[in-house]
Design goal:
Two copies of one chain form a homodimer. By secondary structure, chain A is mainly α. Chain A contains seven helices and two strands. Chain A has a domain of 103 residues: Arc Repressor Mutant, subunit A (Orthogonal Bundle). The first copy, chain A, is globular and about 50 Å long. The interface between A and B is large, with 74 and 74 residues. Chain A binds a DNA duplex (23 and 23 nucleotides) through helix 5.
Chain lengths: 154, 154
DNA sequence: TATTGTTATACTCTATAACTATA
DNA sequence: TATAGTTATAGAGTATAACAATA
């Protein structure tokens, strides 16, 4: 019973799917993080701005939390921060006073646009070295994998 | 210049590689996290134990930090914690008194083995629904992507 | 002098529970 | 009563700098 195979056939570290996903993500983000830091944005804050860019309709916090994989309390504080910095706007839904609606402000949109070229440069870099079709196929596979309902936690 | 295409051709949120990687990782981890919590382990602590399982030789903290994508100060505090719980052992390298050597204790190894079956169950679940060959190909592609030197942060 | 690892500090995010206000 | 969102609280990780011990 050695270290490599003794743990009830636990896969080798190199073959771990979560680690492979994390490693690939780190490789893709390494260049990008310093740029976010220059704009005083955390990775999570960027995800929120990025999610808001994806739609031209205001989004409710609950939906935003799902799309960005953030917990509601984390998002709530982040929205206060982003609103204080003038990057987003909040309004109250007309049909239900409990619901908020979040959207990018022009300043927020400008910030995303300022950061976007560097993001695109990284993509071009990946596409050149990895291949456009190969990257597209990888994205499709990742999408399919995530769509598998692996079941709720027991 | 609308919200979808106005940001200097920023890719749609759905096509974002870091988001796709995060989404897939969340899908794979969702089942697993509660099990870690039952054993009072964070995701990062699990990565450390998991990395130590992958080798039967003691590992220096610097190497461990690289492999687990943790910063040295974070790892340093975690190692104190894990040592206090009797899950790892530390020793000093004979040839260089500055260097530490970290390895799993028998208790730590037993803990990994206790958690492993659930990890394997998730893999079997994925393999059944996604396909063994398809999963292997995905892992290979992720490995190649991470190996691309996308350059140091500017 | 350079390197390994730890400690100090401030901030952010995670996670759960409790609370407010609407419905 | 149930739901949307916020606030409270405790803990862990991120990030940078400063430090001790060793090389």
């Amino acid at each position: 019973m050695d270290a490599m195979s003794g743990s009830g056939t636990l896969r080798p570290f190199e073959q771990s799917l979560p680690m492979a996903l994390l490693r690939a993500r780190e490789a893709a983000m390494r260049r990008f993080r310093p740029l976010l830091a220059e704009h005083d944005l955390t990775e999570q804050q960027w995800r929120v701005l990025r999610a808001l860019t994806a739609t031209d309709r205001p989004v409710e916090p609950t939906i935003l939390a799902e799309r960005t994989f953030l917990l509601a309390p984390s998002l709530s504080r982040m929205l206060s921060n982003l609103e204080g910095r003038g990057l987003i706007r909040r309004s109250v839904a007309a049909h239900d006073q409990r619901r908020s609606l979040i959207e990018l402000s022009p300043t927020g949109r400008a910030l995303v646009q300022a950061v976007a070229p560097s993001s695109e440069a990284t993509y071009r870099h990946i596409e050149e070295r990895f291949g456009v079709d190969r990257l597209q196929h990888l994205l499709d596979e990742l999408h399919d994998l995530a769509a598998l309902d692996l079941g709720e936690p027991t």
